[in-house]
Design goal:
Elements (H helix, E strand, L loop, with lengths): L2 E2 L5 E5 L8 E5 L2 E7 L5 E5 L13 E2 L5 E2 L5 E3 L5 E4 L15 E4 L2 E4 L24 E9 L3 H9 L3 H5 L7 H5 L3 E5 L2 E11 L3 H7 L5 E10 L3 E10 L8 E11 L5 E9 L6 H30 L14 H20 L4 E2 L1
Antiparallel strand pairs: 1-19, 2-11, 3-4, 4-5, 6-7, 7-8, 8-9, 10-11, 12-18, 13-14, 14-15, 15-16, 16-17, 17-18
């Protein structure tokens, strides 16, 4: 049984995914209906009509923003309050559950738990997504594996050495230890590789030859946000010189042991080079597919494990173990408070 933290921010959708067409997306085992009001404001409501639980995403929007359930005609205004039933005189006392939603830098962040606890200051800085000095690509990849496996995948990047040797990985990643720091629930790590061989992806996208210095600085903002800061430069080059990239991952539990793997890949160099952008996007998707294949295979092993297996960990697991602990603490807080948590 997988439990999801609900009192936290998750990436619910990219801004360009949501318009005047109703869109369903499952988040922490809750069906959510996203849409925009006539003034462009994004809205997220539980995708169940309070009459007979029909998906509201199968209904329609009127020009004034009224949402109609197309099973029996219940109609809801912009605040989610029932304003009547089509073709009938009834005006039942019913309302939709609305979720806190923050639209920032082209992303829609949703808080599926207690709305009174939603704190925008917990969101990381994503201003680079709209910074004119940067360019980026973004999307979402479906993953048939539990959220925790993706969290641990990103907090232990030594897997790059073994899963991604033809693109972003080489021996230096696994050979270089990390420094881990914890700030409340947040988990950060830093890996500084110096005088190493340039991985194939960076040779091609930065025009670098070995030796190079490569930095990986990761931030996990639990329960579902990971930001990776990357710097690569000829060995000995001082900051701020060098090539800088950032990767944002939205790790959003979907339904059961499935996860939405949102991503944005950005850079601060050659920002008008469309050929480079296309190359990097293809590489990003290829790397993510390798991760998806591995995590889905891993999910099968977890789901069928009868128990009793003794887990082994090493020093490079430290950030992942801290991330696991942070999620467990958040779940425990929700359970003590009696809200937010769900078993899948």
């Amino acid at each position: 049984m997988t439990q999801h933290v609900r009192n936290g921010w998750y990436l619910g959708a990219w801004s360009d995914e949501i318009g005047r067409t109703l869109r369903q997306r499952w988040i922490t085992d809750i069906p959510v209906c996203f849409y925009r009001l006539p003034d462009g404001t994004a809205t997220a409501v539980e995708d169940r009509c309070p009459h007979r639980r029909y998906p509201l995403s199968l209904g329609h929007l009127d020009g004034d923003g009224t949402l109609q359930c197309d099973y029996h005609g219940y109609r809801f205004d912009a605040a989610g309050v029932c304003v009547g039933v089509a073709e009938q005189a009834d005006r039942p006392k019913a309302a939709l559950r609305r979720f806190p939603l923050v639209e920032r830098d082209g992303a829609l962040w949703i808080w599926p738990g207690d709305p009174d606890l939603a704190d925008e200051s917990l969101l990381p800085d994503t201003s680079w997504l709209t910074d004119p000095g940067w360019t980026h690509v973004h999307g979402v990849v479906p993953l048939k594996a539990r959220h925790l496996l993706l969290v641990e995948n990103l907090l232990d990047l030594t897997h790059e050495t073994f899963l991604h040797p033809t693109s972003i990985g080489n021996a230096a990643v696994a050979a270089t230890p990390i420094d881990v720091t914890v700030h409340g629930d947040r988990v950060d790590f830093s890996r500084r590789m110096t005088g190493i061989e340039a991985p194939p992806f960076y040779e091609k996208s930065c025009g670098l030859t070995s030796p190079v210095d490569r930095w990986q600085d990761g931030e996990f903002h639990p329960p579902g946000i990971f930001v990776l800061h990357i710097r690569i430069a000829p060995t000995g080059t001082e900051e701020p010189e060098g090539f800088h990239m950032r990767v944002l991952y939205g790790l959003t539990p979907a339904r059961g042991n499935e996860t939405h793997d949102f991503y944005a890949l950005g850079r601060d160099y050659l920002i008008d080079d469309e050929e480079l952008t296309e190359f990097q996007h293809k590489q990003q998707l290829a790397v993510m597919q390798e991760d998806v294949d591995a995590l889905e295979a891993q999910e099968v092993m977890y789901a069928t494990d009868p128990g009793g297996t003794v887990e082994s960990s090493i020093r490079s697991d430290l950030a992942a173990l801290r991330g696991r602990r942070a999620l467990a603490k958040m779940l425990a807080r929700e359970q003590r408070a009696g809200h937010g948590t769900v078993s899948a």
